[in-house]
Amino acid sequence: MQRNAIPLVLCAVLFAAPLCARAAVGSKPPEEGSVASVYQQQNALFVPGQFTLEPGFTYAYSDSNALTLNGFLALGAIFLGNINVSKVTSNIETFSLQATYSPTDRLQLGVAVPYLMRQSTYESVGVQGSTTQASEQTVRNGGQIGDIAMLLNYELIGQGHAYPAIIWNNQLKSPTGRSPYGIQLQTQPQNNNLSFPSSLATGSGVWSYTTGLSFIQTTSPAILFGSLSYTYNFERHVPNINSQPPSAGGDVLAGNLIGIGFGTAFAVNDKMSLTFAYNDAISQETRLRPDGGAWQNVVGSNANAAALALGVSYALNSHTTFVTNVMVGLTKDAPNLQVSLKVPYAF
């Protein structure tokens, strides 16, 4: 499995936006669009009969460097052997469309459809055996649908003066995107140190179910929020699990994931709000089992993607909100930079 397919799952952590609010202070957010936007971002705003259509765009950039030493250290200071320096740079543009509907003041149903365009550049030294000359190879996909998700959010407890609102969040994601399993690795003819995939994945390749709780509490002038989630990936049989010939079918058990997040938001005025948050997603190793064989761990497939986020939302009117978000990765598994824009419209 490609390591650079991991950010596809991790890049799904984005901020939504807002509309109108309901009820009184202490149990529900006030009517200001800026505060309602924060509640909407945390899946904590339920307006009976309201339908929301939310187009969005996200750009994610990441790079990684690797140094491989094949030799030995002589006299405790001189390295004798081959040195290979490689770099991978990835750019992912995601166009998304999410639709939600609240049949009651506690229940929200929705569906989210992503469309991804990816480009990765692989660099390595080793041209004609040289340890100084480098070459590169760029792999692109022309755009393809990602994993479609179905959403269900339910308010377990409404916010009170002494306790936060608690929302139960559920997501079922289907493997509609291009699977990372079975993608073949190729070697550049002039540089046998440079290997690259024949195509790029746009999905996880397996069915997954995410469940968790989010919490939100108004403590004027700030709003506090947090979340805890768990993603379970279902075992799935795929026709090819090898990245090199020959083809071999087998079972895939992608690593499950724990997600945590917390932050605070401030309503600058009745239209604009600022959000500061920390998000972390920790996944286990993926396991593969060839037909007739035993389970094997995919080395290096576990990840810890932590990021800091800054968001700004602006309520254009009672129906439309403009939401931007910038995330900066804190660990090597998180994208270096992720910028998103969403414009929800409520009917």
Automatic annotation (TrEMBL):
- The signal peptide annotation in the UniProt record is 1-23
What does the UniProt keyword field contain? Answer: Signal
Designated name of the protein: Transporter
